């Protein structure tokens, strides 16, 4: 269930980044979308990292490109309620979303 939640968060982050107009806003929107997605799915990560590959923003208009987002969640194991289990389990997912080929970048 946690893996699916992180994949959904990565997908939401990639989509949010792909419709942004600048690299800075793509990173900010991706991070916000990922955190919102994890919160909405009730996944409580001890630490969440969102990285966005925005290299395609530098390509000329008319050139196909895509944005990738990687979401990493350090899931607390002590939350599952089994005695003797502590620490975290890291779950990572990467998803991509295409940029509009003919929009200004």
Describe this structure in words.
This protein is an alpha+beta fold and 105 residues long. 33% of the residues lie in helices and 30% in strands. It is built from 2 helices and 3 strands; from the N terminus they run ααβββ. The protein has helices at residues 2-18, 23-40; strands at 45-53, 66-76, 88-98. It has a 3-stranded antiparallel β-sheet with strand order 1-2-3. α1 (2-18) packs antiparallel against α2. The termini are far apart. The model has no long low-confidence stretch (mean pLDDT 91).
Instruction: Tell me the number of strands.
Output: 3
Write down the Rg. 16 Å
Q: How many helix segments?
A: 2
Shape: elongated
Low-confidence spans: none
Mean pLDDT: 91
| Strand arrangement across the biggest beta sheet | 1-2-3
What's the helical proportion of residues? 25-40%
SSE succession: HHEEE
The portion of residues forming beta strands comes to 25-35%
Major β-sheet annotation: 3 strands, antiparallel
N-to-C CA distance: 36 Å
**What would you call the structural class?**
alpha+beta
